[in-house]
Amino acid sequence: VEPGSKIEAIGTATAPIVFTSNAASPAPQDWGGIILCGKAPINPQGGTAPSEMGTGVVYGGTVANDNSGTLKYVRVEFTGKKQSDSKEHNGFTFEGVGSGTKLEYLAVYKGADDGIEFFGGTANLKYAFVNGAQDDLFDWTYGWSGNAQYLVGIQGNDVADRGIEADNNGDNNSLSPLSSPTLSNVTLVGSREAKTNDNPDAATDADKGKTIGLKLRAGTGGKLYNFVVYGFNNGVNIEHQVTIDNALNSRLIFANSDIYGPNLFKSSLATLVQSAFFSTAVTASADDKPAYMNGYVGTTATGAINPATLGSFFTGGNFKGAVETGNDWIAEGTWARR
User: In this predicted structure, which of 177-191, 279-293, 324-338 has the lowest mean pLDDT?
Assistant: First the structure.
């Protein structure tokens, strides 16, 4: 969907819109994915960039409230077809998409690359479920400054990489606008059996044991609250000096959250940054998982923040995690494939 155009794809919980494979035995890489391109701010030099996949399509601009339409109760399956050895489609890709766009109840099932990725822009997302992405569950770069609430990502046991991969700009980590989204109520469930390889077709048993809950690098900022992260081989990995500076100066915040598992933290300034990043509002435990979790379902009020205090986009509810027991919004209808 090119800049200036719109898609209006509005399903329901029991009658979702499903983009899927027509293969007799569907598998990741059967087709591409859904790409929205808008005119909202991004941080590459000049404020615009060529689409990662759309030949001749340029996105980005100065229209923060740009409107690319509506995606609601939409599921994509078996995405991730390769355009080249280094480029493959995500499930949903939002390139310079503005805050006038409505994104709710999006599901990704068994994609070969990332589940949902933001390339800059100001788009907001509420209610999303990514199951079995072979790269990152959620990803952002190029100055994304939107909001997101109620996100669930589950790694498969075949090939997987990170729960969240977050960048600002890999060429110049200090470019603005800074990647600075605000997220609340996120549950990430990792795999310790999955293989991690940039080329999923080449993954072997030697690639096991490398999954990461949160990889924060290339100067990203952001405010991350009410997370529950468990099941990964590694917890948080912070890379690059600008990212570290953001963590030490409250431009990158991880708070009111629970993270469980081995190898909880890695950084080039580990002791200093861990003290700042794993604040007193974070429970970081070597235990396998929180006792209150059953798969992706489970929340706790202990140490949580009311997201209504974070801005008008957010729905109130004083708990960590995305799916309350007795209120499984993922299981409602057929919109999300589990």
Answer: 279-293
Distance, in Å, from the CA atom of 181 to the CA atom of 123, rounded to the nearest integer, reads: 10
For 168-226, how does the pLDDT look when each residue is reduced to its tens digit (9 = 90+)?
A: 999 999 999 999 999 999 999 999 999 999 889 899 999 999 999 999 999 999 999 99
Phi/psi class of residue 59: alpha, beta or left (left: φ > 0; alpha: ψ in -120 to 50)?
beta
β strands within 34-124, DSSP E: 34-37, 49-50, 58-59, 69-77, 92-95, 102-109, 116-119
Give CA–CA dist 135/138, Å, rounded: 9
Q: What is the DSSP letter of 52?
A: S
On the 0-12 / 13-18 / 19+ scale of CB atoms within 10 A, 213 is buried
Which of these, 192, 219, 224, 220, lies nearest to 208 by C-alpha position? Answer: 192
Q: Give the tens place of pLDDT for each residue, 253-267.
A: 999 999 999 999 988
Report the alpha-carbon distance of residue 301 to residue 13 in Å, rounded.
28
Pair of tokens at residue 293: 């979790």
Give exposure, 68-103, as e/b (b: 16+ Cβ within 10 Å). Answer: bbebbbbbbbbbbbeeeeeebbbbbbbbbbbbbbbb
